[in-house]
Amino acid sequence: MELIKVIIVALISLSPVGEELIAIPAGAVLGLPVLLSAAVAAAANFLPVPALFFVFDRGNKYPKLRDWLMRLRNERVRNG
Asked: What's the CA gap between 80 and 56, in Å, rounded?
């Protein structure tokens, strides 16, 4: 049962703002220790970073995919 609560906190924290604003308080509401909730939320919030690096690394090998990824990145940078 405790593992399910930890997984819930981890899934909530995968969103960009979910770690501090939602996941840690949700962990406290679920009855998890705050320190455990914070550690799980921080670790899960970092998980997408290696995946994004992998996608961009693979994308550089294919011109069409690289161009699409660069357009996507430039649009996000422009929009803030």
From this structure: 20
- Rounded distance between C-alpha atoms, residue 67 and residue 44, angstroms: 29
The model's pTM is 0.65
Pick from 18, 68, 59, 16: which is nearest to 38 by CA? 18
Neighbours of 30 (CB within 10 A): 15
For residue 15, give the nearest of 54, 56, 44 by alpha carbon. 44
The CA distance from 14 to 47, in Å, is 8
| Token couple for 2 | 């405790």
Quick: pLDDT tens for 4-43: 999 999 999 988 777 778 999 999 999 999 999 999 999 9
